[in-house]
Design brief:
single chain, 182 residues, mainly alpha, 8 helices, 76% helix, globular
């Protein structure tokens, strides 16, 4: 969708400008939230104009969900890497936000799939990321600790795997009129 792509580009450009002037890695702090919102709006009833058509196709819900999720994540990751290069941030910072971005995307996807609502996915992803950033700032005094602390990376990866499993299970051929948990 052009709207999430435009929003991503605008916020990352603003992030690059503010990172250069303040020294705070705004690109790293904003990219996970943007990708999470984009992932939640990538597929589902109410947000996808072709959703009903996709339900009649021989392609599984999982495949559509994964392809669209990969598209959103890939575009956000590419734009984020370019933004990180423009701000002169190192590779550690780049991977420092790519791993949390993956977790926030998995959270958004799981929430949107379970709730069958893109808005629920966006709200959950933004709230989750905001709590992580504020919690890490309260614990360390640094707003960017959520993306700079290497010790958190294994936790992000474990959470990503669990949340991806929830999203895949919740999208396993279920229709709107079926209960979520069989």
């Amino acid at each position: 969708l052009p709207s999430w792509l435009l929003a991503t580009v605008v916020v990352l450009v603003v992030g690059v400008l503010f990172t250069g002037s303040t020294g705070t890695p705004w690109v790293a702090l904003l990219a996970p939230a943007l990708a999470g919102a984009g992932i939640a709006y990538a597929y589902g009833p109410g947000v996808d104009p072709a959703f009903e058509l996709s339900q009649t196709m021989p392609i599984s819900d999982r495949m559509i969900l994964l392809v669209r999720g990969l598209s959103v994540f890939g575009v956000n990751a590419l734009l984020g890497v370019v933004a990180s290069l423009l701000t002169g941030q190192g590779a550690l910072l780049t991977f420092g936000w790519l791993v949390p971005m993956t977790t926030v995307c998995a959270l958004a996807l799981a929430a949107a799939t379970v709730a069958r609502s893109a808005n629920a996915g966006v709200g959950t992803a933004l709230a989750g990321w905001a709590l992580l950033v504020m919690g890490s700032q309260a614990a360390t005094g640094q707003p960017a600790a959520a993306v700079l602390e290497v010790a958190w990376m294994p936790l992000y990866l474990i959470a990503t795997l669990l949340l991806a499993g929830v999203a895949l299970y919740a999208s396993s051929g279920r229709r709107d009129d079926q209960p979520l948990w069989h």
